[in-house]
Specification:
Shape: elongated
Structural class: alpha/beta
Distance between the termini: 35 Å
Strand order of the largest sheet: 8-9-11-10-14-18-15-16
Length: 514
C-alpha cells in the first residue's frame, strides 16, 4: 500500500513527481482551494485563471495537469476538482477531500512520490485525505505479471502497466501534532484492512474457497491476537447448522463457520457482526441465467467486510468487544445440492422450505445470526450482498439498512453517511411476512416478488434472538463496481460497509451508540 507521511514543508522545495492541489467550483469560475497558496503565488496569483483557460471548472472529480512553475522541484501540478466551494466560514466536507485525493492517487499510478497540498483544516481533514490516497491508489495485481510469464503477481504492473503510487506526502499535516498523527494512523489501519477486503472479493473462487477464507482469518487472528473458532462441515453437522450445510452441500468445497473475536479489558459493550460469505454463487439447482454468473465471486463481500472490521477494531485497540461471524459456503448444483422443495432444519430449530436455491444467503446468515444471538450481544449487524431487488431500489452505489429498532437503524445510517458510504433506511413491512408462510415448514425462504429486499430482511429477523437490537445491511449494489473507477472507488471489489462497521464499533466504544 502507498506509504504516507505528514509534512510542513513548502511545496516548491519538495522533490516529488507531482504536486496535487484542490480547485473548487466558485460562483464566477474555478477557485484555488486552501493548501495551494505557494503554488498560486508562483503563478503570480493567476492560477485560477490559468486553470479556467485550460477548461477547469472545479467540478467534483475533474482533473487538470499543468507544468510546475519555475523553481519547483516537482515537474507537474495536478489540480483536482472538489466540487462547490463551501460557504463563508465553512470547511470542505471530508467526503469531497476523500474523493479528490482518490482521483489524484489513481491518476498518479506509476509515480514514486507525490505531494498533496489539499485543504487541511484539522485532523479530520488529514484522515479524509489519507483515506482518499490509500484507497484511490489501490490495485489488485495478484494474478498479473510484467510480461515475464511468472504469473505470481510479485512483479505486477497495475493500472495499464504502471505500479500504484509508491509514496504520498500530506502537506499541511503536522508530524508532531498528536491529533494529526492519530488521524493518519487510524486511516492507515482502516484502509489496509479495507484493501484486504477488496483483495478477498477480487480473488477468484477457485482460490478463495470457504476453507481458504477460514485459513486467511486464522492467519490474521494469530497476527493481531484475536480468538478464532472454525467449524468445518463435520462440526456444523454435529451442531445442527442446517442452513449453512444445505447451501454448501452441492459443492466439493465444504462450508465453514468462522467466529473471530476481539476483546478489550475495558469494554462494557459487545457488538456482533455477521457476514454472508458465499465464495461463489451459481444459484444452485435454481441456476442463474447466462450473464449473471461472471461476478459471483463477490458474493462473500459481507464476510470480507466483517472480517476487515474486526481486525481493524483490534488494530485500533477500541475499548469494545467485537465478534465477527463469517458464514462461508459455495453454492453449486450437483447430486448432493439442496433442491427446491427441500426442508432444512436450521441451527435455531426452525424449519425452512427452500423454494429457490438462489435465495441462499439468507439461509447461511440465519444460522450465523442465531449463533451470534446466543451470546446476547448489545447489538447485531449483518452485512450481505443479499438481493438484486435492493439494487433495483437503490442503484449500484447505495446500500439499504433494515432493523428491528428505528433508532438503531437511524444510528447506523448516520454512521454510514459520516464515513462517506451512501446508505438509505428501508422498512420491514409486516404485511410482507405472510408471503413466506409455508404449508410444509415454519417459513419459506421466498415470499412476494415485489419488495424482495424487504422480504429478505423479514426472513432474517426471524433468526435474531428475542430482545436483541439488530440491523441488516444489503450491500448488493455497492459491493462490486462493474463500471469504471470513480473517486477512491476502484473497479471490482470496493470494501463496502467496512468503514461503517468500524465507525459503529468506535461509537459504541465512546458510548455514543446507545
Amino acid at each position: 500500500m502507498t506509504a504516507l507521511t505528514l509534512s510542513t514543508s513548502a511545496a516548491p522545495g519538495l522533490r516529488a513527481d507531482a504536486i496535487v492541489i484542490g480547485v473548487a467550483k466558485g460562483a464566477k469560475g474555478p477557485v484555488v482551494a486552501p493548501g495551494a497558496e505557494a503554488v498560486d503565488t508562483a503563478y503570480d496569483g493567476r492560477l485560477a485563471a490559468v486553470l479556467e483557460t485550460l477548461g477547469a471548472s472545479g467540478a467534483e472529480g475533474e482533473l487538470t495537469k499543468l507544468p510546475a512553475p519555475a523553481g519547483f522541484k516537482a515537474p507537474l501540478v495536478i489540480a483536482v476538482g472538489l466540487g462547490a466551494e463551501p460557504g463563508r466560514d465553512a470547511d470542505y466536507e471530508a467526503e469531497a477531500l476523500r474523493r479528490a485525493a482518490g482521483v489524484a492517487a489513481r491518476t498518479l499510478a506509476g509515480a514514486k512520490k507525490a505531494a498533496f497540498a489539499l485543504p487541511v483544516e484539522d485532523a479530520a481533514a488529514v484522515g479524509a485525505i489519507s483515506e482518499g490516497v490509500l484507497l484511490g491508489a489501490y490495485s489488485f495485481d495478484t494474478y498479473k505479471d510484467n510480461g515475464a510469464g511468472t504469473g505470481t503477481g510479485k512483479n505486477a504492473k497495475a493500472k495499464n502497466g504502471r505500479t500504484p503510487l509508491a509514496e504520498g506526502v500530506l502537506l499541511g499535516g503536522k508530524p508532531r501534532d498528536a491529533a494529526h498523527k492519530a488521524a493518519l494512523a487510524r486511516a492507515t489501519a482502516v484502509c489496509e484492512e479495507l484493501n484486504r477486503a477488496r483483495d478477498l472479493v477480487n480473488t477468484p473462487p477457485n482460490d478463495l474457497t470457504p476453507a481458504a477464507f477460514a485459513a486467511i482469518a486464522q492467519g490474521a487472528a494469530k497476527e493481531h491476537g484475536l480468538k478464532i473458532q472454525v467449524l468445518d462441515d463435520k462440526a456444523l453437522a454435529k451442531d445442527g447448522y442446517g442452513g449453512i450445510l444445505g447451501v454448501g452441500g452441492g459443492s466439493a468445497a465444504t462450508p465453514r463457520l468462522v467466529k473471530l473475536s476481539y476483546t478489550h479489558a475495558d469494554a462494557d459493550k459487545h457488538l456482533a457482526f455477521v457476514g454472508k460469505g458465499i465464495t461463489y454463487d451459481s444459484g444452485g439447482i435454481s441456476l442463474k441465467p447466462a450473464g449473471h454468473n461472471e461476478t459471483m465471486k463477490c458474493d462473500m463481500s459481507g464476510a470480507a467486510a466483517v472480517f476487515a472490521a474486526v481486525v481493524t477494531a483490534a488494530r485500533l485497540g477500541l475499548p469494545v468487544n467485537v465478534t465477527g461471524w463469517l458464514a462461508l459456503a459455495e453454492n453449486m448444483p450437483s447430486g448432493t445440492a439442496v433442491r427446491p422443495g427441500d426442508v432444512l432444519r436450521m441451527y435455531s430449530g426452525k424449519t425452512v422450505e427452500v423454494l429457490n436455491t438462489d435465495a441462499e444467503g439468507r439461509l447461511v446468515l440465519a444460522d450465523a445470526l442465531w449463533a451470534a444471538s446466543a451470546e446476547q450481544p448489545d447489538a447485531i449487524v449483518d452485512v450481505a450482498t443479499l438481493t438484486g431487488a435492493m439494487m433495483l431500489a437503490l442503484g449500484s452505489r447505495t446500500f439499504g439498512i433494515m432493523a428491528n429498532d428505528d433508532a438503531f437503524r437511524s444510528a447506523v445510517h448516520e454512521a454510514a453517511e459520516e464515513v462517506g458510504e451512501p446508505a438509505w433506511p428501508m422498512p420491514l413491512p409486516e404485511h410482507l411476512r405472510k408471503g413466506m408462510d409455508s404449508p410444509t415448514a415454519d417459513i419459506a425462504n421466498m415470499g412476494e416478488r415485489m419488495g424482495g429486499g424487504l422480504v429478505a430482511g423479514l426472513f432474517l429477523r426471524e433468526f435474531v434472538g428475542e430482545g436483541i437490537t439488530w440491523a441488516h445491511l444489503d450491500i448488493a449494489g455497492p459491493a462490486f463496481n462493474e463500471g469504471g473507477a470513480f473517486g477512491y472507488t476502484p473497479k471490482g471489489g470496493t470494501g463496502s460497509a467496512v468503514r461503517t462497521l468500524v465507525r459503529l464499533a468506535e461509537l459504541t466504544a465512546e458510548g455514543d451508540l446507545g
